[in-house]
Design brief:
Fumarylacetoacetate hydrolase, domain 2, metal-binding, eleven-stranded mixed beta sheet, 18 strands, ureidoglycolate lyase activity, FAH, alpha+beta, five-stranded mixed beta sheet
């Protein structure tokens, strides 16, 4: 099943046609996409019953974040070996996590106002939780997943790396620095949800390319280990880490500039397109 946030209304697809969930269910489920995750089991049973499967034709300009108000957002540092190598850092023995504050989460149609001159790209597979997970063993972890989407862990490196202690969470949480989309794809739609091609291009140039099978901590491992520390909640987002190719690690370093377009793609999920504008220009662009 594919689940979309179409102009803030929960939407799925049957036979290639978009289905408004609130209307189709006779009000059993709310139109607000954020409210579906606490009822994921019940909703999934209903959606299977109407034959929800596959995608449909929806203009990207109509789409918003598939989990628009996540209770918690987790980001992973150094979860691809090649990214750890380019950063010159040792591999972690336990998932190295930070948070992107939920207010930075937006959908694919929001222009991103660059917060500074050292903003960087990081394409990531994003897990959306569908069931609470506490001390959940890896063998059962996928049972707690609603689906997968694409994310950009946009990072303003000057603040993120400012001393004496790094500011990962603040440097990665400027307004709109957490675009996700285009929609949520349930794991059963994918041949192997643990092995998906992932790539990112900037103005047509490929800057990152890998497979999610190269994750140091797999999706199941992340859920299992994070849930030993705290409870993962329905609607939570887990940004699973980025492969090599970020601008900060290049020689010379490269950063995002106004007018550029970033395209993030993951096999079986689709494409997330992010556009960038200068400081103060976002409101003008969004109302144009």
């Amino acid at each position: 099943m594919i689940l979309a946030n179409v102009e803030r209304r929960l939407t799925t697809f049957v036979g290639g046609e978009a289905v408004d969930v609130e209307e189709k269910s006779g009000g059993l489920f709310d139109a607000d996409p954020a409210l579906i995750y606490p009822r994921w089991g019940e909703f999934r049973e209903w959606a299977d019953g109407i034959g929800a499967k596959g995608a449909g034709d929806v203009a990207p300009s109509r789409l918003d974040a598939p989990s628009p108000r996540p209770p918690q957002v987790f980001g992973l540092v150094l979860n691809y070996r090649d990214h750890a190598a380019e950063a010159g850092l040792a591999l972690p023995a336990f998932p190295a996590a930070f948070t992107k504050f939920p207010s930075c989460i937006v959908g694919p149609r929001t222009p991103v106002e660059l917060a500074g001159a050292t903003s960087d790209w990081e394409v990531e597979l994003v897990v959306v939780m569908g069931r609470r997970a506490t001390n959940t063993p890896a063998v059962n972890a996928w049972d707690h997943v609603a689906g997968l989407t694409i994310g950009q862990d946009l990072s303003e490196r000057a603040l993120q790396l400012a001393g004496p202690l790094p500011q990962f969470s603040l440097g990665k949480s400027f307004s709109a620095y957490g675009p996700i989309g285009p929609w949520l794809v349930t794991p059963d739609e994918l041949t192997d949800p643990d092995d998906l091609a992932i790539r990112c291009s900037l103005d047509g140039e490929t800057v990152q390319e890998s497979r999610t099978s190269q994750l140091i901590f797999s999706v199941a491992d992340l859920i299992a280990q994070l849930s030993t520390v705290l409870t993962l909640l329905p609607g939570d987002l887990i940004f699973t880490g980025t492969p090599a190719g970020v601008g900060w690690a290049r020689e010379p370093q490269r950063f995002l500039t106004p007018g550029q377009q970033l395209i993030s793609e993951i096999e079986g999920i689709g494409r997330l397109t992010t556009s960038f504008v200068a400081s103060g220009a976002a409101s003008a662009v969004s109302t144009a």
